[in-house]
Structures are given as C-alpha cells and as structure tokens.
Design goal:
Elements: E1 2-6, H1 15-28, E2 33-37, H2 43-47, H3 61-69, H4 75-79, E3 83-84, E4 90-92, H5 101-106, H6 115-125, E5 132-136, H7 143-150, E6 154-159, H8 163-181, E7 189-197, H9 202-215, E8 219-225, H10 228-235, H11 248-266
Parallel strand pairs: 1-5, 1-6, 2-4, 2-5, 6-7, 7-8
Antiparallel strand pairs: 3-4
Helix pairs in contact: 1-11, 3-6
The chain binds adenosine-5'-triphosphate (ATP) and magnesium ion (MG).
C-alpha cells in the first residue's frame, strides 16, 4: 500500500486540488484508493460533494483516530467510516471538530505519532482494502503533520512560484529529515510538484532554476499550469475526471502523467 501525503505549510498552493485529482486518477486506472481528509477545513470532503457538517464527528477521521488512541482501531472499524463520494471515490471525511486534533494528539501517548501508521497497518493486513492512500493535510506544522509523515511513503509537495513558498518548502524538508533521521520513517520520500506555473514567464523561469539548484532530485517532471478546470471543478464538487468544462481533458492528462511518474518511482501496486 502506497501512502501519499499532500503537504506544505503554505496555504492555497494546491494540496487539496492535487489530493482530490490524484485520488481520482488512480481510481481511473482501476486501483483501490482511499482519500483521507486530515484538514478541519474539510476542503477535499467538500470538493468531492460531501457536506462535512452532515456527518457525526465519530463518522469522520476523528472517529478513526479516537479508536486508534484507545488502541481499538481495526480494519473493520476504519472501513465502517469510509464513505463513497458521488463519483465513487472512497473517503474518510473531515469534520470541523478536527480543529482540536493537534491538542488531542499532543496529549496522546508519544504525541499520537504512530496512530495513522497503526491504522494503515491494520488496513494493509485486511483483504481487499486499498492499494493507494492519499492524505490531504492542513497548511500547518505540528502533531498532525508529524503523524502523517510517520505513516507516509512519499510526501507530495505542491509548489507555486512564490518566494514565501521556498521558506515553507525548507521547513517541510526539515520535518521530513527529522522523521527520517530519528528512525520513525526512514524510507520517507519527497516529490515536489510544480503547480500554478506559467512556464513562459520570466519570473517563473528564475524560480524554477532556484528549485533545480536545491531540489533537482526531488522534482517531478509533470508541471501544472494555471487552468480554469482546477478552479471551477471545485465549485462543481467534481474531480477533473468527472468535470467536463474548459481545460478538463488537458488537466486529466497531466494527472495521469503524474501518477505514471509515481508508479515508476514507487512500483505498481
Ligand atoms: N493549477 C491550478 N490552476 C487553477 N486553480 C488552481 C490550481 N491549483 C489549485 N487551484 C485553485 O487554487 C485554490 C487553492 O488550491 P487548494 O485549495 O488546492 O490549496 P491548498 O494547498 O489545499 O490550500 P490550504 O492550505 O488552504 O488547504 C483552489 O480554489 C483551487 O481550486
Ligand atoms: Mg487544502
């Protein structure tokens, strides 16, 4: 089971846009995908057509993590909380009460660091569960990020060409390095995915060179330009694989190319 976490402390860089559509792309290939919305803003949940406030908090990720805190998370207890979005993507939804999750984790044993890892180990042991798990993370450091990184195979970092992003990227790389060097998750990998790029703009070319100078090895080949489909499909509560408006087919092809890259790096499941 591959676990991909969309992470960066900077808001609005495309974590949710990529999480939702990478999940949809893997599903197009016939793989069994679970999207986990770890952001109390519940953007991914909402994007795919589920009203987060219609759920009891126990039916969201919170229920799963509370079970894990009490050491009683099983594959069955996780699967009971998984819902199908209108386009058939399996999701563990977020809930606004997750705003208190960092405090809850801080008071859990070991800061809750191993809770998700344990949950995914339970899922991986069960028959016919998931090939791929996608985590959508909030724009924050702290215990939720640490718990996610402990359970992740590869961090996917959407980068838009802005100066402030480089600081957030360095901070994330430090968190990744800590998780690797203290032995929590030595195999953790990182891929940087350029998003909202205008490849012909001079400023973006300069930014690109800066990224290459520091992170050439981690950079994914697939680059996402600014496209209406990625903005407007959210309002329609659809992935670009369901959405049929302007640019949708171009953006779909880019997501398929990105997951092909991931499968070359991590192996097919
Ligand atoms: N390549 C793109 N072209 C056009 N719009 C985009 C693109 N990528 C993302 N967007 C839009 O930009 C906005 C911010 O993206 P998104 O919500 O994915 O960011 P985020 O990193 O998840 O933000 P947050 O940190 O607040 O969770 C959304 O409205 C999204 O639809
Ligand atoms: Mg988001």
């Amino acid at each position: 089971m591959h676990v991909y976490a969309l992470s960066l402390e900077k808001g609005g860089c495309g974590k949710t846009a990529l999480a939702v559509n990478i999940a949809a792309a893997f599903q197009q290939l016939g793989l069994r995908v679970l999207l986990v919305d770890l952001d109390s803003q519940a953007s991914a949940t909402h994007w795919l057509g589920i009203d987060p406030e219609s759920l009891h908090p126990d039916q969201s990720v919170l229920g799963v993590l509370n079970d894990a805190i009490q050491n009683r998370a099983t594959a069955a207890s996780v699967l009971r909380r998984v819902r199908d979005t209108p386009e058939g993507i399996s999701i563990l939804a977020a809930h606004s009460l997750m705003a208190s999750l960092p405090a809850q984790l801080t008071s859990a044993p070991l800061g809750g660091l191993f809770l998700l890892k344990h949950v995914f180990a339970e899922l991986a042991r069960a028959a016919n569960t998931y090939d791929i798990v996608i985590l959508d993370l909030p724009p924050a450091r702290g215990p939720v990020l640490a718990m996610a990184l402990a359970a992740t195979t590869r961090c996917l970092v959407p980068i838009q060409p802005e100066d402030l992003v480089m600081r957030a990227l360095r901070a994330l790389m430090t968190s990744v390095q800590q998780i690797k060097s203290n032995g929590v998750n030595q195999g953790l990998q990182v891929s940087i995915v350029r998003n909202k790029y205008a490849p012909r703009s001079n400023a973006d070319r300069v930014f690109d060179q800066l990224l290459h100078d520091h992170y050439a090895v981690q950079m994914a080949q697939t680059v996402f330009p600014i496209r209406a489909a990625l903005r407007d499909s959210a309002a329609m509560q659809q992935s670009v694989f369901r959405y049929t408006g302007t640019d949708a087919s171009e953006v779909r092809a880019l997501f398929l190319q990105l997951i092909e890259e991931l499968m070359v790096l991590d192996g097919r499941v």
